[in-house]
Structure of Lysine 2,3-aminomutase:
Amino acid sequence: MSVDRGLKSAADLVDAALVPAERLAGIARVAERYAVAVTPAMAALIDPADPADPIARQFVPDPAELAILPEERADPIGDFAHSPVEGIVHRYPDRVLLKAVHVCPVYCRFCFRREMVGPAGLGTPSPQALDDAFAYIAAHEEIWEVILTGGDPLVLSVRRLAELMARLAGIAHVKVVRFHTRIPVVEPERIDAGLVAALKSCGKAVYVALHANHPRELTSAARDACTLLVDNGIVMVSQSVLLKGVNDDPETLAALMRAFVEARIKPYYLHHPDLAPGTSHFRLSIAEGQALVAGLRGRISGLCQPTYVLDIPGGHGKADIGASSIRPMEEGCYSVADYRGEEHRYPPVGGEG
Ligand SMILES: *Cc1c(COP(=O)(O)O)cnc(C)c1O
Ligand code: SF4
């Protein structure tokens, strides 16, 4: 085992002193069920002396993962309900997911696709399946955007990425290519001039949606990786999951959103955790989430505000679940709450403010 290659088993985590030996047996049972991987960059961020470390909580297995609730499901957001061909999820008319790989550099303990990713997951589509996926995109002129996800698409080699980009370059109705990735944070050394050139080679607008959940993840190496992407004209947005014990307090959430904006990454989505098997210890209630998100308004810049979303189980897509600040009253009047929670009538009565 070498930390340079990353940690891929319960024994690796113990050898790296990230978990005490007495926890090995419990963690090994989880690792038999769900993939484990921690990159050197993330291992270096973990404080083994802190039993509540928010980085460890995201990547180090917990025996709580073996407790599966009746409402949890293997396909929590209904990918399979909308998959016309292998590797494609087509839920909304104008955009598709293209899942070219089911491997990740890290395995997040709360992952919504935890039954699909990793060595025991769906695997990599065969060349024939990939041909069929591109044929599907080419045949559907309403597809304006292709979202590469997985797994983490940026684990692919520069050569493989350039091949995928060349195929997208040949489909004129696709105008936007988006990557959903954790690589700039968890393996920032992969972001180099060769990778940037491969992404840009499709000749389309390229967006990178970075998944990060705690402000400590935006290390100087991660910020340098994002600078390289943004300076080269790649637009970055963020995605975070609201996670109990990781970022479910106003200070941490505010610091995370500010860290994104400082790195020129526009906060995009804050996801309510999906009903993935064995993840109930990460979920807070929607009311708690709404209160946290409402608390960001007024506290931090408008640039820092994410949209709080829920992926509706069964494949019905995402919904904005932030608490509404406006309530209809009688006869075309409304009550609007300001950022402190005080209610105001709209339109105002008489000369009052
Ligand atoms: C989340 C998701 C998208 C992207 O949704 P946006 O709101 O455009 O970010 C597209 N397709 C599927 C199937 C998704 O789950
Ligand atoms: S990087 Fe994304 S797909 Fe991979 S384990 Fe984490 S949440 Fe799941």
